[in-house]
Amino acid sequence: MVSKIVREAENQYKQALAWRGKENPDYGVIINRDTCIARLGCRNCIEFCPGDLIYYENGRPDVKFLDECWYCGICAQVCGPRAIAYIFPDEILKAGEKKASPK
Ligand code: SF4
Ligand code: SF4
Fold first, then answer.
1. Residue (of 61, 62, 88) closest to 73 by Cα position
2. How many domains does the chain have?
3. What is the CATH classification number for the domain harbouring 90?
């Protein structure tokens, strides 16, 4: 079970790296514009983001307030075509490392 979760996390991270730069920032919530089906009316990520951080503008969803994102992953979970992946910012990774290191 754990290895499946780790494998999925690795895959989504690789995806996010591949999508980076395609109108996307270097870190954060990365949306694949090629596979997003917002043009067909999907607004799942916008409706389900608990922080109300994603907005539909210029024909596509965009994370407007990335600094307020807490990387809960809900937007990626509710995205049917799996067009969302994320790259955790350094401060979150470092906080995770601190917690994981033995005392
Ligand atoms: S990871 Fe969570 S808080 Fe961040 S944009 Fe997605 S749903 Fe919103
Ligand atoms: S949930 Fe996925 S497909 Fe739907 S608008 Fe958001 S990114 Fe696009």
1. 88
2. 1
3. 3.30.70.20
